[in-house]
Structures are given as C-alpha cells and as structure tokens.
Design brief:
The protein is mostly helical. The chain is built from seven helices and no strands.
C-alpha cells in the first residue's frame, strides 16, 4: 500500500490541472469554465512546487502549458474544432517527452530504482504509446464524431490512464517481489578473510 501511495500521489498531483479540466468537461461544465479552473489548478501546482523550493516536474509544466494553451485557444478563436483537436497535439508532445528513459523513476522510492528501474523504463515507452494512441483517438472523435467529443475527452484519457496505472503498478510490484525472492534464494558470497 505504501508503494501505491508513493506512486499515485505525485502522478495525480503532476496532472491535477488536466484532471480538473477533463472532469469539468466530462460533467458538462463547458470549455471556458473548464479551462479557467484547469489553469488555476495547474498554476497552483507549479506555484506550490516553486514556493517549496522543489524542482517542477516535466509533467507539471506540460499540464500547465496544456491548460493555458486551451484557455488561450478558447478565448482567441472561439472555434470548437480547434479546441477539440488541440489535445491531440498536447498528447503527442507528452508522448514524445515520455520517450525519455528514466522519467518514471520519480514515482518509485529511490531504493527501488536498482531493482525495477529497467521495468519502469519499459513502461515509460508503454505510457508514450498510450499518449500517441490517445492523440489519434482524440483527433478521430473531434473530426468524425464531434458530438461525442466532450464525453470522450472527459472519460477516455482519465480512464485509460487509471487502467494503465493499475496494470503498471501491479506488474512492477510483482516483478519487484519476484526479484527480491530470487535474490533471497541466491547463495551469498563468502566474506573475504
């Protein structure tokens, strides 16, 4: 349970602005109120990190940029097709950022990086693939099924992330435990005399 809380807390915190934006859209709050609320939350998250003197994580900056870009696009164009297609660009950017090895290591205790760091790297690529898939799905829904877009953007991105997180967390825990059991069963090298 401790590892789950260690992983899920920062992940939710890092994406809080986008989560607020998506949830509000999903419940029908409208694009303008959703972008204003998402922007306020994303600014608060980044501000919180800066005030505490901690480095701001890449996903926190991306979350802030995403909601600010949404707000600007909404206010400047008023064109719903632009606003609906915009998440595809953001998901592509996020997916590209997730192709960097080691980006997931901040979501596990430092002492576990040696144990499951390679698994975290592989899941980093799985997360990137999901972002690329979400970008494509968003574009298809925005263009071909416009009436369904608010429901899609309010449900699918969060649901797919929650599902992948559950799989990711379970697999990493299982592999970590298996590796620890295997290490415990290995004979220890004799101490030098």
């Amino acid at each position: 349970m401790r590892n789950l809380l260690y992983a899920i807390g920062p992940m939710i915190f890092d994406s809080l602005g986008v989560i607020v934006f998506a949830v509000l859209l999903g419940v029908g709050a409208g694009i303008v109120p959703a972008t204003i609320a998402g922007t306020a939350v994303a600014v608060a998250v980044v501000g919180h990190e800066l005030v505490r003197g901690r480095p701001v994580a890449a996903l926190q900056w991306i979350s802030l940029a995403m909601v600010i870009f949404s707000a600007a696009a909404t206010m400047l164009t008023g064109d719903p097709r632009f606003v609906m297609a915009k998440p595809s660009v953001v998901y592509l950017i996020v997916g590209a950022a997730m192709l960097r090895r080691g980006w997931l290591n901040r979501y596990i205790p430092p002492e576990q990086v040696g144990l499951v760091g390679d698994v975290m790297d592989r899941f980093g690529y799985v997360w990137a693939a999901m972002m690329f898939f979400t970008a494509a799905a968003n574009l298809v829904i925005a263009v071909a099924f416009t009436a369904w877009w608010p429901l899609f953007v309010g449900v699918f991105p969060l649901a797919s992330k929650a599902a992948l997180f559950a799989v990711h967390f379970t697999v990493v825990q299982w592999i970590g435990q298996a590796r620890l059991r295997r290490r415990a069963g290995e004979p220890q090298p004799a101490a030098a005399e």
